[in-house]
Amino acid sequence: MEPDAITATTVTFKLTRTTLKNVDDAAGLWQFESGHVSRKGEKVANYSSTKRVTFGGTDSDGQNAATVNTTFLFLGSSPAENITLTGTHTFNSGNQTGSVSAASSSQRTYIGQTYTRNGSTDTVQIG
Q: What whole-number distance in Å separates Cα of residue 65 and Cα of residue 4?
């Protein structure tokens, strides 16, 4: 399915996680997540997400947070049309906030728009 034409309105996606792996290292923790992206009940993409906890930084002052990068790889073309979200993640709620940092040509008008991810519903809103 080709992604919808981009408009200035808010778009909502539902994420369904299929993988979640933690990898510890001397400086902190990486968390790798992947799964499916749906819109209006139809699978439109796959996603890959990395979170980074850095000891003495993202875990300080009660934040219990990580930096996060998530890329949606839309179905229907090769290479995949895509959107990359960059922001922060809080482990207390699972919520995220940030903006669209990169996108392929069909998704370019999303660049710079804010996004949120609701940790309890795994919905992402852009715009």
A: 32
Enter the pTM of the model. Answer: 0.91
- Cβ atoms of 100 and 84 within 8 Å: the answer is yes
What's the number of domains the chain is made of? 1
The pLDDT tens digits for 24-54 are 999 999 999 999 999 999 999 999 999 999 9
Residue 3 lies in a domain: no
> Please, are residues 51 and 33 in contact by the beta-carbon 8 Å criterion?
yes
Answer whether 124's CB lies under 8 Å from 12's CB.
Answer: yes
Taking a C-beta distance cutoff of 8 angstroms, is the pair 103, 73 a contact? no
Residue 4 in domain: no
For residue 5, being part of any structural domain is answered with no
